[in-house]
C-alpha cells in the first residue's frame, strides 16, 4: 500500500479520533501528507519515538495500539508463564502519555496478559526497578525522554529491567510488519479488566520501595544524615517526573536544604518555561540559576522529563560552571573508588560507552578495575550487568555515558538521574566539609591523570538527498587512509560496521567483539580520538572528540586543532 492509499484509508475511517480528524483536515501540503503516511514509525531497541499527530509516521492512539498489539503477540509467543508474569506500565508528563499508557494496558489485558499500571506519572528508572520488583516479563514506558514537547514515545523493557535486546526488537519488528490495519485494534474498558484482575493499579507505596533500594547508593549514610543539611541544593525537574522521588529521597537521607524551582516543579506537557527540557542544554538552567544565586547554593541539579538524565552546575566565585557528562561521570567514579578503597577493587568492573571519555578508563585501570566498553546506548551497559550476574564473575561498580546518563546500584537497569543526583550530592558534601568544591576535586583528578577535554558536534545534510549524501560521506571516510590529525599519528581505525580495528602502522587487523554498528573511530598516538556516528533515521551524524594533554590550555588547543583538521579532511574526501 502506498502513502496515498494509506491516507485515503484514514480519511475514510468514520470513527477517526476527532482531534486527529481536524488535524488531518488542516494538512494540505502533499509533502507533509507523504511524510505522515509513507511508513509506520520505526521501532527499534529504543522502542518507538516520534512527533505527536495524525498519520502512521506519528505518535497517536492508533500507532500506540498497533505497537501494543505487536508486544501482546510477542508475549503470547513466549507462553502462558510470560502472560502471567505480565507487563509493568508507566508514563511521563507529556501530552497523551496517560491515555497511551491506558490503551497499552487495555490491549495487553485483552490478550490475557497481566498488567501492572501506574496510577500517575513516574520516572523511567522507577519503571525499570518495578519490572524487576514484580518479576514481570516486560515493561513499557510512555516517554520521549528529553525531546521537545511535540514528541512522545513507547519504550519497551525486558524482564531484567533493561531495554530490550536487538534480538527481541527484531522479532517485535517482524510481528509489527504484519499489523497493517490499526483501526481494527480495540479492547474493552479499563474497569472491565480491573474487575477481572488483569489490570492492577499501583500507587504511592512503590515510591517508598524505590527509596529503600536507593539507600545502597549512599556510601556514608551516617555522614549524610548528620551533615547533609549543610549542603545548599537547588533542583529543577524541568516540569517532568523527578520531583516526587528526589524530594522523598533527599529528605530521607538528610539533604534537608533542598529548594525546588517553583516555576518548574509541577508536571507540564508544554514545558512552558524552557525551549528544550534537556539538562544537557545550558539554557534549561536559566530559572534555576536565578534561584541558585539568590540562595547562595552549593549545587544546582536538573533532571530531564523522565528523570533518567542528570545535569549539574557548580559555582566558582559566584559564576556558574556547567559540568559536562564526562566530568559528572568521573566525579562519581572517583568517589566510589575512594569509598571502596579497603575492598578488593579487582573484583569490580566499570562499564561505559565507546564515545565516552577515556579518563574514566585511566582511573579504573590504575585501581585494578576492569573496563567494559559498549556501543552507544545504556541498554548495552545493562546487558553487561546481566552478563556478570549470570557468570558470577565481576561485580558492577558503575556505568555511565557522556550523554548525562549514570547508574550506581543495579536494582535499576537503565540510566537513573535520581541515583546520580543522590550520590553527587554526597560527593559535593564531602568536598564542602573538606573546604573544597567539585571543581577543586575535578582539578585534582586532572592533575593526576592528565587534562581531558571533549566536544560533540552534529553535522546535518539538508534536502531530499540528505540521507544519501550522508551515507556516501561515511562510506568515503570508511575507505580513506588517514595517517595524521592535529600533528599526531593516527594509530588505529575502529570500524564497528565491519567489526574491525586496523593498526594503520602495521596494517594488522584485529576483530572487534562489540555488535555491529555504523560507527567509525580514529585513535591517535597520544590517546586522543574522534568518532563519527550516523543517525539511523535522520540525515545527520554526530562527531565526538576527546583529547588529553598535560595542561588545560594545551588540551583545549589540541581539541581545536583536531576539529579543524577533521573538518578539512571531511571536505576533501
Percent range of helical residues: 40-55%
Tally of strands:
23
* CATH homologous superfamily assignment of the largest domain: Alpha-D-Glucose-1,6-Bisphosphate, subunit A, domain 3
| Total helical segments | 20
Instruction: Please name the CATH architecture of the largest domain.
Output: 3-Layer(aba) Sandwich
Name a few traits of the molecule.
single chain, 573 residues, alpha/beta, Alpha-D-Glucose-1,6-Bisphosphate, Chain A, domain 3, TATA-Binding Protein, 8-stranded antiparallel beta sheet, 6-stranded mixed beta sheet, 23 strands, globular
What report would you give on this structure?
Its cofactor is Mg(2+). One of its GO terms (biological process) is purine ribonucleoside salvage. Pathway: Glycolipid metabolism; diglucosyl-diacylglycerol biosynthesis; Lipid metabolism. The protein is α/β, with parallel strands linked by helices. The protein has 3 domains: 3-209, Alpha-D-Glucose-1,6-Bisphosphate, Chain A, domain 3 (3-Layer(aba) Sandwich), CATH 3.40.120; 230-449, Alpha-D-Glucose-1,6-Bisphosphate, Chain A, domain 3 (3-Layer(aba) Sandwich), CATH 3.40.120; 452-572, Alpha-D-phosphohexomutase, C-terminal domain (TATA-Binding Protein), CATH 3.30.310.50. It is 40% helix and 21% strand. The strands form 4 sheets. Strands 16, 17, 18, 19, 20, 21, 22 and 23 form an 8-stranded antiparallel sheet that branches. Strands 1-5-4-2-3-6 form a 6-stranded mixed sheet, with helices on both faces. It has a 5-stranded mixed sheet with strand order 8-7-9-10-11, with helices on both faces. Strand 14 and strand 15 (405-407) form a beta hairpin. The longest helix has 21 residues, at 552-572.
